[in-house]
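Protocol step 6 of 9: fold each sequence in the batch and record its structure tokens directly after the sequence line. For illustration, a two-sequence batch is reproduced in full.

Sequence one:
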Amino acid sequence: MIPLDEIRRARERLGDDVLRTPLVRLDERIWLKLECLQPIGSFKLRGALSAVRAASPAELAGGVVTASAGNMAQGVAWAAREAGVRAWVVAPEDAPWAKLDAVERLGGEIIPVSHEAWWQAMVDRRYEGVDGLFVHPVEDELVMAGNGTVGLEIVEDLDTFDTVITPWGGGGLTTGIASAVKALRPSVRIVTAEPETAAPLAAAMRAGGPTEIEFRPSFVDGAGGRALLPTMWERAQELVDEAVAVPLDEVADAMRLLAARAHVVAEGAGALALAAARHREDRCVCVVSGGNVDAAVLAKVLLGETP
């Protein structure tokens, strides 16, 4: 659990440079926390700014590095540009270009690698040949504290709710939000959502520990994965009450519902929480984590297809 005081300090570092995103009521029991409305289209700006602004000038002198398929890359590139230093992004070769193009517009330098090399950079917390400050997209506690500011806002803006549902990619968003919510509303349940084709946390919760899964990449590129990062299973055991694997058809349905009813564009990961909430009966806050989706993918979804 990230200490509540650390999350509050992260909010002070962020100031007014991240949007206090609206909490919108979808129906009588579902609210949407619209992190897709952040300046980079994703919650990742919170964690990236929190980590970079906490670093000393000496730590930043060589620039910053992250490993990301897109959204964290944009957050780190934004934060590095503000700090006046270079940013390198280790990205899998098949990462969505809607996200990588945005990284380049922000001044980030992309290092395309295989999915295995990208994963190894996250495990090793470094990439050979690049010596900048490594900002881990998941396991960095300063990043998770920044993510936790989402949880502070939810608790402050809504008096009564039963469950917060978050997409689970690496676990940094869930850990941050859950740390804040559990500290302030201990009875609230934390539920995670992953695409069923890449759901290592749901498999681990069923098995009682990390286990191998059959991984298939999908249009839900911002959540799920091949495996759990080494430290995140312990955090999940402490904070997560339930983990759900969501069929891809239901993710696409949730994207269409967000567009039609909330007038919001969400990427696959951003729609996961709503897809999971539709099977529940309690009062849920769904974190719509991002809206950075390739136009071709969005077009297929809006036409009723599952890409």
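Sequence two, same batch, same settings:
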Amino acid sequence: MPRIRELGIYNGRLPTGPLNAITDVAGVAVGHFTLIEGEGDWTGHGPFRTGVTVILPHQGNLYEEKVATAVHTINGFGKVIGFEQVRELGNLETPIALTGTLNGPRVADALMSVMIEQNPHIGLGFAATGRQGYASVNPVVGETSDGFLSDMQARPIGEAAVRAALADASTGVVAEGVVGAGAGTSCYGWKGGIGTASRRLPPEQGGFTIGALVQSNFGRPEELTIAGVNVGAVLRPGEGEAGEWRLGADKDEQSPLSSRHSSNEGSIMIVLATDAPLDKRQLERLAHRAAFGLARTGSTCHGGSGDFVIAFSTAYRILDRPEVLVGERPFLFEQPIMSALSLAVIESVEEAIYNSLLMAHTVVGRDGHTRYGLPAAAVVRSLKL
């Protein structure tokens, strides 16, 4: 299964990082735990097509050394956890976890357990340091629904799965498609999943890197747009070669999958990372730009979708218990390069969504529900029609 770049049909205006992934931002690591278990009818204990994906801004103690972070809600029909404190304080103190909707509270609980192990004073106070008050912890968890393919009610993703994803975390190549939090998701009526991409600014604009990672689970088949072409007008999941797809669908015709099984309104989680020394306000500006990358792929952010963005900078650390009241941080005068940073976000998000589709294979889930992998060859052919 090729990434979009390998098809020769898409190029951005900005160059990519070496891996064309969020891990091109130095220190950022990504790990997955994938649960593919059971076949056939729903039992209350499966079948499962689900998982969890974790994103770590650095390899140290994230609670002790937080990073500047902002969040943005494009459309709020979702169950994200931890966003309100990030909005208030502008920092991140746990890894970011992505999972299926009803797994969210269990994943948040697992993150709290891991952070308490690393920081035993959480919940007990600062007696050893002489400071007053008690420390809490703010787990950040994003979600999209994988209920079409997986048994969501059973909520199988908990502490063991989160620990496995953290142990899997790597600063290298990021697995995409049907992995982790993308195991059971759908995108434009096809199989969605995890996708990633990156962009690097030229040296005269600081040489900064922007990376994006998405959990795609949104859109109707007829909306799919690739490289500016409405591919969904002619390429639909349904009857065709091997029963997986058909080329030449009527533009006004609804996909069998959208009419039979679900509205495909869905959701998306978008995670942005950068090494540019941005503060919370500046990161918010970048987070807003993610919607433009999403729109390039055909999304109109349906009313039933939960579309959320988390953006963080790795350029400096925010100490949990500093010994001084006043510190110094690097600061970016953004205006000279804000347009370039915005373009980097837009292109990274757009390409990450394409990769999430093209790297996903066909999955048969609970009750025989099927999401077909987007056929790369047919995509190339449809762009030439």
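Proceed to step 7 once all outputs are recorded. Observation for sequence two: The radius of gyration is 21 Å.
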